[in-house]
Specification:
This protein has 442 residues and is of the alpha/beta class. The protein folds into two domains: 3-207, Carbamate kinase; 292-438, 2-Layer Sandwich (VC0802-like), CATH 3.30.2130. The chain has helices spanning 15-26, 49-61, 67-84, 90-99, 107-126, 147-160, 186-196, 230-238, 249-254, 280-285, 315-325, 353-364, 391-401, 427-438, and strands at 3-7, 31-36, 129-130, 164-167, 170-172, 178-180, 201-206, 227-229, 259-263, 272-275, 292-305, 339-345, 368-381, 406-411, 417-423. Strands 3-4-2-1-7-9-10-8 form an eight-stranded mixed sheet, with helices on both faces. It is globular, with a radius of gyration of 25 Å. The protein starts with a strand and ends with a helix. The relative contact order is 0.10. The protein binds adenosine-5'-diphosphate, aspartic acid and magnesium ion. Residues 8-11, 37, 40, 184, 206-208, 211-212, 215-216, 241-243 line the site of adenosine-5'-diphosphate.
Length: 442
Amino acid sequence: MIKVVKFGGSSLASGESFAKVKKIIDADPSRAIVVVSAPGKRFSGDMKVTDLLYLLQAHIKFNAPFDDIFDKIKERYIEIKNSCGLKQDLDYEFDVIASGLNKKTSVDHIVSRGEYLNARLMAEYLGYTFVDSASWLVFNYNGKVNFEKSYENLASIVEHTPHIVIPGFYGAMPDGSIKTFSRGGSDITGAIAAAAINADMYENWTDVSGIMTADPRIVDNPRPIENVTFAELRELSYMGAEVLHEETVFPVRQKSIPLYIKNTNDMNARGTLIMEKFDDEEENKNVHFITGISGKKHYSIITIAKNRMNDEVGYIRRALEVFERSGISIEHIPSSIDSFSVVVATSAIENNLHELISALNEAIAPDSIKIANDISLIAIVGRKLAANIGIAGKIFTSLGENNINIRMIEQGADEINIIIGVDDKDFKKAIRVLYNLSEVEE
Ligand code: ADP
Ligand code: ASP
Ligand code: MG
C-alpha cells in the first residue's frame, strides 16, 4: 500500500500545524509521498504566504520598497523552523531567493518559492528526501502538463527514493523556467503524483472533515458527505464547491485511484471518500438521495421565442453560432416547442449585449428576445436522483412553500444532477431549503 498525501496551506500555517502533520504521517507508514502547499492563514485576517509573494512581486515590478514584505515572509518560515527544532539553512535559501529578485523575475518563479521553502522544512522534519517539483513535473510549450513525461520522471525518482516531500503548485516549462498552476493548484500536483506512481490512495488533508453537503458559509454545520463519485464531484466543484481545485479529478480518475478528503485538525474523522463507483454494501449505507448542493450567482437567461420554431430545421444551431462567434460560453439551453433559453454568465455578455442582440436578430429573426439578469444557478447532485421518481416535484414544492420563484429547471442527460435557476436574492435561502430537503432520507 502506498499513499500520496497532500497538505493544504491551512494545514501548514505554523510549527504547531507541522506537528499535526508529522503525527498523521507517523501514524501510517504507507504515507510515503507528501505534497505541501505554502503556509496559509494562522487566524482570520492573517495573510497566506502565497498572497504575500504576489504582493512582493507587485512591489518589485513597480519599484516600491519591498523589504518589509520579504521580512514578513521570512518570519513565517523562521517560526516553523524554530518551533520544530530544524537545522535548515534558511539564511542561505533567503539569500538565493533575494539575489534572483529583479524586475525581470517571473511572477510564477516568485510565488513558487512559498511551496519550495515549506517542502524543504517539511522534508527535514519528517526525515524524508526533498524533491523539487521543477525536476519532475513538466509542462509542454502550450502550458499544459506533459503527463507522460511527468509520470515517468516521478516514477523513476520514487523507485530509488521511496519517502519524499515535494512542493505543490508548480513545475517546469521545457526551457526549465518555473510555471505555476492557477490558485489552489497544489491539489493538482498531488493528483499527478498519485497517478505517476499508481498510488493506492490520494489523501487530501485540509481544514474541514470532508466535502460538506452544502457550503458551510451558507448552511450552519452542514453534514459531511461520506461517499461521492468522481462524476458527482465534478458537478459539485464546477458549480462552486471550492474544497478541491476543479482540475484535481482527472489524473486520479483516469487511474481509478480513490481520493479521500481528510481533516488535519481531526485526523480520526472519516472524511469524504471519492471513487468511480461504490459497491452495493456502501450504497445501501447511503440513505440520502441528494449527495450535495452547490451554486453560483450572476447569470443571465436569454429567452428567444419564434412561432413554429420546430418547423425550421437548424434554427437553434444558427442562434448558437452567434454565441460562438462572440466567444460566449453557454452553460445551459433549456427549451420548449416555440422558444428556448440560453443561460450564460452575466459577465460574458454585459459589455457586448447590443451587438449580440442585433447579431441574433439578423441570424434568426425571432419574434422576441427577453433577458433576465441576476439569476443564480444551483446544482442538486446525486447518483440516486435518477432512481427517485418524484424528486423534482419535492424540489418544486419545498421551494414554492418558501416563496422562492424557480426561473429555470434542467436535468443533466446522465441524470445525476438537477439544475435550477432562482433570483440572486433568493440564492442563500434556496440553498438552505434544498439542504433541509437533502436531510430527509429516501
Ligand atoms: P487548503 O488550504 O487545504 O487547500 P481550501 O481553503 O482550498 O483548503 O479548501 C477548504 C475550504 O473549502 C474549507 O475551509 C471551506 O471553507 C471551503 N468550502 C467551500 N465549499 C465547501 C464544501 N461544500 N465542503 C467543504 N468545504 C467547503
Ligand atoms: N499556495 C497556492 C495558493 O494559495 C497553491 C495552493 O495552496 O494550492 O493558491
Ligand atoms: Mg486548496
